Amino acid sequence: MVRGRISRLSVRDVRFPTSLGGHGADAMHTDPDYSAAYVVIETDAEDGIKGCGITFTLGKGTEVVVCAVNALAHHVLNKDLKDIVGDFRGFYRQLTSDGQLRWIGPEKGVVHLATAAVLNAVWDLWAKQEGKPVWKLLVDMDPRMLVSCIDFRYITDVLTEEDALEILQKGQIGKKEREKQMLAQGYPAYTTSCAWLGYSDDTLKQLCAQALKDGWTRFKVKVGADLQDDMRRCQIIRDMIGPEKTLMMDANQRWDVPEAVEWMSKLAKFKPLWIEEPTSPDDILGHATISKDPGYSTEMKEESVKKHQYPDGEVWKKLLPAQEN
Amino acid sequence: MVRGRISRLSVRDVRFPTSLGGHGADAMHTDPDYSAAYVVIETDAEDGIKGCGITFTLGKGTEVVVCAVNALAHHVLNKDLKDIVGDFRGFYRQLTSDGQLRWIGPEKGVVHLATAAVLNAVWDLWAKQEGKPVWKLLVDMDPRMLVSCIDFRYITDVLTEEDALEILQKGQIGKKEREKQMLAQGYPAYTTSCAWLGYSDDTLKQLCAQALKDGWTRFKVKVGADLQDDMRRCQIIRDMIGPEKTLMMDANQRWDVPEAVEWMSKLAKFKPLWIEEPTSPDDILGHATISKDPGYSTEMKEESVKKHQYPDGEVWKKLLPAQEN
User: Fold this and answer.
1) Residue A108's closest CA among B158, B64, B26?
2) CB-hemisphere CA count at 13 Å for B59?
3) If you average pLDDT over residues A86-113, what whole number do you get?
């Protein structure tokens, strides 16, 4: 049972000078200082539990996200956590649909990042009060409660609350076994840490060798700034990891659509599983065009449309029909 | 000839309590305080000319846009206006593609609004130094110079710089006559000022009568909060303006796709020219679905896809092929 009233929200601008080592560099973000807006919420309950939430930024501009968190704070302060948890969708709507603030979003950019930091802190507080990590809170949650946390605005034409509930209810079968399996074997992950664009070939080789030694089987490489450079680096990685292990690529929105098609026709020989963010992340039909180009393997064609880091469900819902056309 | 080096950029948070009178209210923004981040740039030239630029906000959150303007200021300060004007595309790219700041955009929401306020101030300064209003600066500009101001990133698959140049060069024919005609007769505009959602029927009638007296022939009405209310208000306006004058509708992103189709099938009898922002502004395929619904007149079907207030060229480029499918 959750408890307490939100009595304080504080937010810090936390920065790390990662650009000094070229860490995190890609074709569009060449000198990132990996940073965060760090939100802490406290309650008047006597347990002393705090909820912490961050959103990731690249250095400059973190103060703008901090400013937006402060603008949102009044939607959280003085609320009973019980009331938030009892109507999470309503709480989400309040944060995202404030009649004045949504104008500078909506659900995009700075306001999106600020909202996420606040929501992450609330989820963290909720889970800590229940004595669980967030994933376990979600896994244990009744499907009806889980869908009640989600705002289906703008996606009901492809997924309604009832559809989602049915999917989750079907998923109850075998859930315990899957949880056990996950706890024993872990969830498959990939590493990007070897292949930032700011790294020399020597650093790339050294980190890739270490990652192989540590048991990694999936590797992502940043591409898109210089084709010859990309071809050399992809060759190095593919040679080191061999033909069986998985290689992914990420252009971080660098290309125009025809440029993406041309560039990827040259990189296809390194057998990437996907190309991530080949162009503007909002260009659904552009992604469909790129994915349909005959220069790629079938496998890649499928994944290149499916796998992108998008800000909201809105974009996901459009990728599927666009691909089917 | 432009002159001077940008020596100062200041930005103010200007607010007006328009919500007190229900001015500007729509289905999503029920209590807007029409406001602005107001940017002023100065140069070290002796003419004392300042460039002013604003972007429009709804009250709360204007301080976040102000914060973002300050984060962008270093891309403008100490630059020669001559250098900015000589490579406007490069200047635009610097503002929108800062390797750290673009992460909290890119070209969306707060950063988009802040960038626009700064760019508006630069255009204003440029035009004032040339002794012209901005429209005249643009009209008189050599087509090659004009296209050189535009960043074609992400749109070259539907419009290249060469395509745009050809359009503008063809447009040179008859330009003088069109300019004369425009100066003599004005550019057709519509009014939204009668029909904010916050107005009573009496206020609506009074303002509509006044607008007709003032010679307006095109009227936009806010819809989307309550269907019965919309039907009553649309009936009042259509009765007052008669069958020949133009009526437009604007739902300000209120509906899901099926909801938009259902709602507009009820409002179609008032013969709207278009429905603006029926759903999420990013949902291209959703807009295509809504526009293809047989509940509308042919005229409306065309316009509902063409006419939307979108943040960038990216969205426009996608509307056209989506409509053709």
Assistant:
1) B64
2) 17
3) 94
How far apart (Å, rounded) are the C-alpha atoms in residues A272 and A238? 9
What's the pLDDT tens digit per position in A114-162?
Answer: 999 999 999 999 999 999 999 999 999 999 999 999 999 999 999 999 9
In this prediction, residue B321 has a pLDDT band, given cuts at 50, 70 and 90, of low
Separation between Cα atoms, residue B64 and residue B308, nearest integer Å: 26
**How much is the CA Rg of chain B, to the nearest whole Å?**
22
Q: How many CB atoms lie within 10 A of CB A253?
A: 22
Q: Which contiguous run of DSSP H or E holds residue B212? A: helix B201-213
B319 three-class SS: helix
Please calculate the CA angle A54-A55-A60 and round it to the nearest 5 degrees: 120
Interface test with A, best of B70, B94, B96, B100 (most A CBs within 10 A): B100
- Check A154 against B283: CB less than 8 A apart: yes
Among A265, A264, A217, smallest CA distance to A241 is for A217
Q: Please provide residue B111's backbone torsions phi and psi, each rounded to the nearest 5 degrees.
A: -65, -35
Residues 270-299 in A contacting B (C-alpha not used; CB under 8 Å) = 279-280, 282-286, 289
Q: State which H helix or E strand residue B143 sits in.
A: helix B143-148
- Asked if residues A152 and A161 have their Cβ atoms less than 8 Å apart, the reply is yes
Assess B156–A contact: CB distance below 8 Å, yes or no.
Answer: yes
A103 contacts on B by Cβ (under 8 Å): 29, 32, 57-58, 61
| Beta strands at B246-250 and B50-57: parallel, antiparallel or unpaired | unpaired
Q: What are A231's two structure tokens?
A: 């071809």
Is B100–A157 a contact, with Cβ atoms under 8 angstroms apart? no
CA closest to B19 among chain A residues: A100
In contact, A139 and A179? CB cutoff 8 Å: yes
User: Does residue B39 contact residue B206 with C-beta atoms inside 8 Å?
Assistant: no
Gap from A37 CA to chain B (nearest CA, Å): 11
- Pairing between strand A218-222 and A50-57? unpaired
Fill in the amino acid letter for A10: S
Of A103, A108, A157, the CB nearest to B29: A103
* Amino acid occupying residue B193: S
Q: Which residues 201-240 of chain A have a CB within 8 Å of chain B? A: none
Task: Residue B28: list chain A partners with CB under 8 A.
Answer: 97, 99, 102
Residues in chain B closer than 8 A to A105 (CB atoms): 109-110
Beta bridge partners of A272: A247
The whole-angstrom separation of Cα B245 and Cα B218 is 6
pTM higher than the cut 0.90 = yes
Is B99–A33 a contact, with Cβ atoms under 8 angstroms apart? no
Which of A259-269 are b and which e, b meaning 16 or more Cβ less than 10 Å from the residue's Cβ?
A: bbbebbeebbe
Residue A128 to chain B, least CA–CA distance (Å): 29
Q: How confident is the model at residue B297 (pLDDT cuts 50, 70, 90)?
A: very low
Distances (CA, A) of B45 to A63, A308, B52: 33, 49, 16
Q: Do B64 and A63 touch (CB under 8 A)?
A: no
Q: Which of A97, A103, A152 sits opposite B57 (nearest CB)?
A: A103
CA distances from B44 to B2, B41, B50, B92, B312 (A): 12, 10, 10, 22, 33
Q: Are A248 and A190 in contact (CB under 8 A)?
A: yes
**Facing A63 at nearest CB: one of B59, B61, B71:** B71
Query: In Å, what is the CA distance from B281 to each residue of A105, A256, B59?
Result: 12, 22, 21
